Amino acid sequence: MILANKLIYWYLHNKRELPWRKTKDPYRVWLSEIMLQQTRVAQGLPYFLKFTEAFPTVFDLAKADENEVLKLWQGLGYYSRARNLHFTAKYIAKELNGVFPKNYKELLQLKGIGDYTASAIASICYDEPVAVVDGNVYRVLSRYFGIATPINSTKGIKEFKELAQTLIDVSQPGVYNQAIMDFGALHCKPQNPLCNECPVLESCVALAKNSIKELPVKEKKIKIKKRYFNYLVPITDDNQTVLEERTGKGIWQGLYQFPLLEAKNEIDEKELIQHEQFIKLFPEETIISLFNNKDIVHKLSHQHLITKFWVVKTREVNEKTMSWSAVKKQPVPVLIDKFLEEYLNKES
Question: Residue span of the signal peptide, if any (predicted)?
């Protein structure tokens, strides 16, 4: 309990004032927790404000069109979170009459809610003593106790969850969980932690053994895959273009993009116009220009997209066209969004 007490004391004097901390409404807590997965608070906060303004209740989110949800989510990445959010909102609104499950086990049954999110909602909203374990918690616990078990291993996940559960303050589990997460985010930071001002420095094993920089331990990352994307940006005589929905189970499912020609390696203009996909899309003569002089390397967690945008002026294109004003309304990956911003500013 000594660690819990000290972290809670630190938290009460140093916590961040955030909108989702002013309520125990499970809808808002759930929304914030889903948004902050793989996302910094500074980045997620404006999205939370936009979402709660557009969808004040779970019923509003449930009634929304998926495209509207994805458009508001645009730029946050990991779009499966947004689709799961929308799916679960519809389930809660229709099947549960808008009432969230009130315990960890039942919350865990909802789509898109894993151990961490279920623990956060159950502890913060319903005072159930279930410990959260996120990146911040892994870091604090591994350093404080000097644990070198890889945090992304099956053994590590189990070990840290069990340890976290033994430490939780059962009288105020929500406060404790938020305290240890904030402490990891603001004080026991990945780089340059504030060890000299640490409230638990006297009992921190990593500090005593000078192993702060080595902890937490992660198993080797998956090899990064390189993919070569060639986006074809049709411009017709009447200044229309083509945007199509990205299907399949891969990245950016349900978002919109320009026709994509993916190659095994980098290709030049000659190879591009000889490609079967290009010939099928453009039956008539074209004028091609490469928009970006240097390849754009868009980095995702397990893959790097080496990207070219080819502007193709043509009289005819074998796809349904749309205006640029319509393009702006569609949810697109951030890679496409950045291109649109540059291209439309250049053209205006």
Answer: none
